[in-house]
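Handoff note, outgoing to incoming analyst
You'll be picking up this chain. Sequence as last confirmed:
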Amino acid sequence: MSLFGSRKARPTRPTDILERPDYGWVWKPLLGLVVVYLVVTLALGAWWSLTPDGFDVQQASAEQRGRLASDAPGAAPLDTSPAGRGAVIIATQMTLLDTLLDKQGGYLRNDMLPPGLWLDNMPAWELGVLKQARGEAHTLVEKSAMQPGALKEAQERLDGDSQDWLYPSTEHRIAKARDAYAVVLDDLNQQRDALPAEGDVPAYWLSRVARRLDELTYRLSASVADPEALRELEVDVDQLPGRTPWYRVDDIFFEARGQAWALEHLLAAMVADYGDVMAAADAESLVERLQAELKQAQRTLWSPVVLNGTGFGIFANHSLMMAAYTQRAAKLAEALSGRLAGVSAPDASLNQPADPSAQESMAGQTATQAGAETGAQAEAQAEAQTQAQDEASASAADEASSPGAETKAPGTTPETAAADESPAAPSSGSDEASAGEPSADSAEPAVDGADTNADS
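Most recent structure output, in case you need it:
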């Protein structure tokens, strides 16, 4: 080999090359699945957070009663036949529980996986509905005077923890409570039982509602930092609970909306079953004002979050507005409770007999009495006419035989003089007889005014 000469290239030998593995086919699909999962859960969370639509309590009652005799719930016929007092209340209670179980997403308060895990507005709303359902359950057990078996079972089922997810879960207990109310509704549908006709049942329920709304007002006010605003609400600052954390403000707000939603339907059911009692107590205006306040508390929230501003600042204070509605609703509920206490439903049987044969008998007796009175009046009138004619003839004969008969004016005969001197007895006799008898139009049925004036 020359010292400075060029070297001949060595031949290429095969070598083992260590390649870096390509994991792109693994993590890219996984990342895509995670992104899709997050998008789907966010969309479901937004949909599940929508408040369910309201329902008509009379329609719900007909549907619930129709399902009692039908095996196919979807094709159940409507049952509008007469039922015992309280059927609309029980059916509304059942529909509230069905709403908690069957709304979009189902019952979310005890969810342990997304999206229910990170949702808080709808679970708080569910808690508000559940609290009002519990209050109605306690009222039915304590004041209904019905068989306490099924009602007591429903109350105990609803009083459990609202966040249980192990067996028995909250959904399981709510379903069992609904089945217990179905037994009660079947008895009311067959008219084997009914709520009392007195206003003490709605009065007791409304008094409990007022206390619950007062407590809710204080909880909403605890998130308000402006003392002037609380002074306008007449809220005692010393009785407020601890300051609400910022991440709990929206939970209390949506719980209040859930209570207002449930109260609106329960109040409508109470009006349907106790409308006659409320009419006797003259409480329709209070009911309308209370319903208006509950509707105002459920107006659409256009803000994406619940704001907690102060005064006339840039941001609104949604908790303060809700506290104003709940406070007015509490006062109206308390006033309505006082108006209904002690008032009973008017009894129509006091004015007319329930048996048709008794009505016919009374009508016959009335006709017989009227005929007898008419005959007596005719006989008295004829006797008065005969007596007047006899007196006129006797007076004419006496004047003709008397010495001063020639002094009468020319052209005056004894018969003419008798006719001029005779009194109009028949007409006066008939007027006295008619004046002494009461007219049929002036007769008024006896009305018990104790129920109507109980509130005064």
